[in-house]
Amino acid sequence: MNRRSFLATAAAGLGVQPAGGEELAWPAAKPREAGFDASKLEAARVNLAKRNTHALLVLKDGHTALEWYAAGKSVTTRHNTASMAKALVGGTSLIFALNDGRLKLGDRAARYIPQWRDDPVKSKITLLQLATHTSGIQDSSVPGVVHPNEPGWQGLFWRRDPEDPFTIALRDAPVLFQPGTGYEYSNPGMAALAYAVTASLRGAPQTDIRALLRDRVLRPIGIPDDHWSIGYGRAYRVDGLDLYANWGGGEFTARATARIAEWMMRAGEWGGKALIAERWPKQAVQYTGMPLPNRREEPFAPGLGICWYTNFDLVWPTVPRDAFLGSGAGHRMVLVAPSLQLIVVRNGDDLRVNPAEEGFSTAMYRHVFEPIMSALGYPAKPAPVPYPRSAVIRGVEFAPAESIVRKAVESDNWPLTWADDDAIYTSYGDGWGFEPLIPEKLSMGFAKVEGNADEFRGVNIRSSTGERTGDGKAGQGERHADGGRRFVYVGSKCEQRADHLVVGSCADLEMGFPHRSKFRLSGLLEFRKKLPRRSRWIRVCLLARRLERVRGG
Q1: Residue 53: Cβ-neighbour burial (10 angstroms; 0-12, 13-18, 19+)
Q2: 114 alpha-carbon distance from chain centroid
Q3: What is the DSSP string of 212-249?
Q4: Dihedral of CA 123/129/131/137: which sign?
Q5: pTM for this one?
Q6: In degrees rounded to 5, what are phi and psi of residue 12?
Q7: What is the spatial distance between Cα 409 and Cα 197, in angstroms, rounded to a whole number?
Q8: Which residues of the chain have pLDDT under 70?
Q9: 122-160 residue pLDDT tens
Q10: Beta strands in 342-499 (DSSP E)
């Protein structure tokens, strides 16, 4: 049976029309040719069709393995993507503004939002916090209430009339906790991000988000204009800016959604041309280290990259770790697994027959992710433990998320050495160091850290001979030396040498904690002060990391 006959047969069984149209297409492959168990993939499709699915598109290795539409839908149907727009619109527009140097993730949002500059709390919110739902700004949604019927400012935000939603979000949405100390899914927070990104575009060739997306990515990757729209179909003129909603209000065909996902999977490259520096699409789909959602209530809730969800800690255990996701209400979603060259687009309404039967992320995992991965035969076998059990490190404790202090945001790596003057000296790469930030971006810079883990301060150290400049691949990497004594990477182990204690790692440490946590020791920590032989606890201060203490022998 060829692909066309397979789709026609599947559609006839449910009284629907098979997909048609040649625009925005990929070469076809039979499910088996694409590596799927055809009967399992068909069973997954049938189950999803019964669960309010309007469109299902599965791409594998650049080929269409399955494309199905419910009655009245087709390849040219634009589907309401709900909060999938946060990734497709919000994330994409943000990484282009970052790419063009118009803003930085560590910037205070008040730099672009003048209404917040005198607010004692909102003035502290960063763009990274807005992009990861960790700003503390209250959401505009009330559980169990239809959006336009919500009370007060929340209902006004969704009705978008008589006042625009951006003004309401910036002025009326309260902050529930100190920015960066917790997780609160926030549509108004995304509205603030859209305002900040648009404000940064003043003087650019494209001065609004819609034009930016159209000219910089959607047209270049071959998405016709009639396959998408954003912002509830209109712009709001506020403070001289044309603002488009990035939290919802988008409409994309299933193929347009898949094409954007494919471009992200290819790290911004299309037709042999880089439409954006590859670091930004890659960074967008990597965990940012910000506080996680409440997994006691929703065990399959993922952590965030830059507006995209990530599987960095295998919260979806049968999905590859490099997978990323855009999703919205009604389980509208696009799942991307680069290591499998797999893209899954699902449009429709809520998968749950009874929303009380399981959580939002649980339903997505159980009814979409698991069945499709099973049809693909993934994982074929459990992944091996990446490192042998340490004979020295007996255990690890993680600090509460709200206790984490982040400084020198966007600077990377941070090998450290504890000097005899009780200061920690360090170098960093690909950033601007501590505040006040260094004007030019350095691929290697220097700093020292004073104080203790509870109250520390970073000071940039300028060096005309040691600093290196450049961005990404153009930058020159870090070099480490200490009076002729080479800094040694010792893998994932801890050792006592002479009067130095060295803790180091040249890779991520995958730990078998119940919540499938993962942490990274970047470079090494070298402590010059000899610790008591009987000391069982070594307190480790890592900037922007969740590791709190390493228990040693």
Answers
A1: buried
A2: 27
A3: HHIIIIITTTT--GGGEE-GGG--EEETTEEE--SSS-
A4: negative
A5: 0.76
A6: -60, -35
A7: 18
A8: 1-23, 382-383, 398-403, 453, 471-553
A9: 999 999 999 999 999 999 999 889 999 999 999 999 999
A10: 342-348, 393-398, 416-418, 424-428, 442-452, 455-461, 468-469, 493-497
